[in-house]
Design a protein that fits this description.
About 40% of the residues lie in helices and about 10% in strands. With about 250 residues, the protein is an alpha/beta fold. Helix 2 (about 50-65) runs antiparallel to helix 5 (about 145-165).
Length: about 250
């Protein structure tokens, strides 16, 4: 195999990520078309019809939620951003200070690095959907509390049900633990495909972009995770909507 299997855009994205270790794989997946209209408050593109209406209604619930104490300290709830036609859903931990101000997940330097990671797998930010476990910022960016996660997870599960992505990419230990319902160290969650819920949506776990900014030496490992993302998407495309699971890959039900 040669580096020519990676597109020029993927090479440039990897350079922006600061990845020096090149692993060569022969796939750049096709993308599904994004719809044109914007979903108010979610800052994302939507399709037409019932799904868009349902997402808009869900966003209104999120924006007015007072189920936990975080509503007292937030500037605004952060619903999510992206397109209803997304085949990739990215899930993080919770909004930070910038996200709380702007109402959009993954902005600032971490968001810029996430954008480069997405480009490396042939996606733009506008072609995916990005959300968090928590919709409101915890004070001083502390870890989410169990009672906060319990109140917020139904919103995320509803988003997943509406989007029906082909793949979920979970960034960071806290997001992975809460989505998968495990306490396994992040290093042991990486490098394998997990599955979410009854719909058995594949889940790939990788490092949070903020961690990669603090620990750039780990970026080559995140590239290994992105290769797994491309493999899963390739399998999904090849099987034309079937799950495309390799029986040799470890599975974990969320």
């Amino acid at each position: 195999m040669t580096e020519g299997f990676l597109s020029v855009r993927q090479h440039l994205a990897l350079q922006e990520m600061g990845v020096d270790v090149w692993v060569r794989r022969p796939h750049e997946p096709a993308t599904r078309a994004a719809a044109d209209s914007r979903v108010p408050h979610a800052q994302g593109n939507s399709g037409s019809g019932n799904s868009a209406d349902a997402l808009l209604a869900l966003n209104k619930q999120i924006l007015t939620c007072t189920a936990c104490e975080l509503h007292k300290t937030r500037t605004q709830a952060v619903c999510g951003v992206g397109t209803l036609s997304a085949d990739v859903l990215v899930i993080g931990e919770a909004p930070g200070a910038d996200e709380d101000k702007q109402g959009e997940p993954f902005v600032g330097r971490a968001g810029q690095l996430l954008n480069e990671m997405l480009r490396a797998v042939g996606r733009s930010r506008e072609q995916v959907f990005i959300a968090n476990i928590l919709k409101c910022r915890p004070p001083q960016n502390r870890d989410p509390r169990s009672e906060e996660v319990e109140q917020c997870l139904p919103f995320l599960r509803a988003q997943i049900e509406l989007l029906q992505p082909r793949l979920i990419v979970v960034v960071g230990r806290i997001a992975a633990h809460n989505l998968l319902g495990v306490e396994t160290p992040l290093g042991q969650l990486r490098g394998r495909v997990h599955y979410f819920g009854d719909s058995r949506i594949p889940v790939v776990v990788t490092y949070h972009p903020a961690y990669l900014l603090r620990s750039p030496a780990q970026k080559s490992k995140s590239w290994q995770d992105l290769l797994l993302v491309m493999d899963v998407l390739s399998a999904a495309n090849t099987t034309d909507g079937q799950d495309g699971r390799d029986p040799k890959v470890h599975e974990r039900q969320a």
